[in-house]
Write a structure and sequence with these properties.
single chain
Length: about 120
């Protein structure tokens, strides 16, 4: 299994609409078989399935997977505890997700600004 590490060490999420399971695996440092398992355990993860049963994840799926990863690996939750934590506070979930999106966008904008500065 992968070593637990902070979400701040994870790579930035590119500005794409869909991500393959391999891309999500790299972005979240979680193996593909773990992602497939988490799909069964967490109703919040719902990738689009296309021809050949290929999975395509949306940006919010990637962010949810990062949150699940943090709960399991960094905060020590069990699968059941993480599922309950995510479903128990629906109002906080939206706020938390918004903060994550804002944080990620800010980080990406800072990277673009650094590239544009001479």
């Amino acid at each position: 299994m992968l070593e637990p590490s902070s979400n701040s060490e994870l790579p930035a999420i590119p500005g794409k609409r869909y991500f393959t399971i391999g891309e999500v695996s790299e972005l979240c440092t979680v193996k593909p078989h773990v992602l497939r398992y988490w799909e069964q355990e967490f109703p919040q993860i719902k990738p689009v399935k296309r021809a050949g049963n290929r999975r395509y994840y949306l940006r919010q799926d990637v962010m949810m997977i990062r949150q699940i990863r943090s709960l399991l690996y960094d905060q020590g939750y069990t699968i059941g505890g993480a599922r309950q934590h995510l479903s128990g506070d629906e109002g906080k979930k939206d706020t938390r997700r918004s903060r994550q999106i804002i944080h990620q966008l800010r980080k990406e904008l800072e990277e673009v600004m650094a590239l544009l500065e001479p």
